[in-house]
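Annotators were shown the component list below and the corresponding predicted structure, then asked to write short factual statements about the assembly.
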Amino acid sequence: MTHPEALIEIKDIHKSFGKFNVLNGIDLTVRKGEAVCIIGPSGSGKSTILRCMNGLMPIDRGTIRVGQHQVHSLKTEKAMRPLRHQVAMVFQQYNLFPHKTALENVMMAPIQVLGHDRAEVEDRARKLLDKVRLGHKADSYPGQLSGGQQQRVAIARALAMQPDVILFDEVTAALDPETVKDVLFNIRELVEEGLTCVLVTHEMGFAREVSHHVCFTDHGKIVEDAPPAEFFANPRDPRTREFLGQVL
Amino acid sequence: MLDLDYSWLADPAYQSWLVVGVINTLKLAAISSIAATLIGMLGALALTLRIAWLDALIELFVEVFRNTPPLLQMLFAYFTLSTLGLQVTDPDTGLSMPLLSAFACAAISLSLFGGALAIEAFRSGIETMPRAIIEAGQALGYSRWARFWRIEAPIATRISLPALTNILSNLFKTTSQASVITVPELMYYAGQIYNDNFRTMEVMILVLVIYVTLVSILTYLMARLERWMAFPGYGKAAS
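Structure shown to annotators:
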């Protein structure tokens, strides 16, 4: 079954590290404007799915389509570049460039990679920092910002690329509970504005409120994929039930 | 008790020897420091290409120059380079003379010695780059080269600076060994002076003070550079 309106279409992907099969036949479809949350126990392959979507990790078998890009057939970093303009990523450890200020972190790639006009990019970057409510920290270095602030700069940096999709890889996992709120607030705003988002998360409340559908991964498979109301109230798979029983 | 007599310092001949000696020491140190830094950067850069034969070649170069005495390297450079047939005819005297002067041989051997150590310093800076930084660059669509120049090299340079300071201050002191191959630098003239006036202790104390002063200036400047290039969270933070 193909979904012509689907922005991301993943079919039967497999990936192993040595003898360990991380992904055992994943199927996932994300439509434009959707927010999809991937939850599941650690080691079940959640982050690997995201890394395969933007080609950071090659897959062994299966197909991945993002927009017009057939990700599985892109072999070189050069071939990946158009894909990476379309798909931005926010990491668990923020991964900001420590030698650049917050503003420079946001401006770098649009100027250096996309070749956009500097003045226009600076204007865009300042607006994005305002949007994540860090306009006053534009000249601070990552080392001078708290974890939550760094993560919001990382979100602004991803947005500056004007992507069609943003992948969020456990972006609140390294944060303390108070700053988690601020980061989730920013992400919720993006979802409400209609940006396509795929999130690996442990924030069940957030997944329930924000996402259009929720996937549960276990042993490299998506064992449940349902709208949040159904997913949390009436999970079909016993493994989902067990997991939710432990975390809720 | 020490009975120090520095009256010989009033002698203009000794004064000019000391001045020339210091100038030649500074020249030799400056040339070999700059060359060593460049060799270090180029070598570390070449290692990032991951070309097997090039890696092996650089590895061999580093091992040879790191694991042999710099004095031996200097003698080796002096005696081989000057006997390799690299001779020119002096246009003034018509005499045949080696193309490479003792100074040039010293500069070349010190540059290679320092360069071998600097390659290791820069290499360790590049290799300790967090995987996360590289991934962030990839995810933003940076090409391998752009990523290296815009992201990895600036961070690695800052990380490598303290090690480079050590290498350059050692290199500065090693210039004194050029006296053995008749390069008229500070140590060479120090020998000339005490062979002349037999005030060995006085001359050695003076030379020691001069070296301490010069190397201290170098390390001070490197510390300034480190602070200037620092960013919060790595090394000496400016904040």
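Statements collected:
1. Strands of chain B lie at 87-89, 96-98.
2. The two ends of chain B are 51 Å apart (CA to CA).
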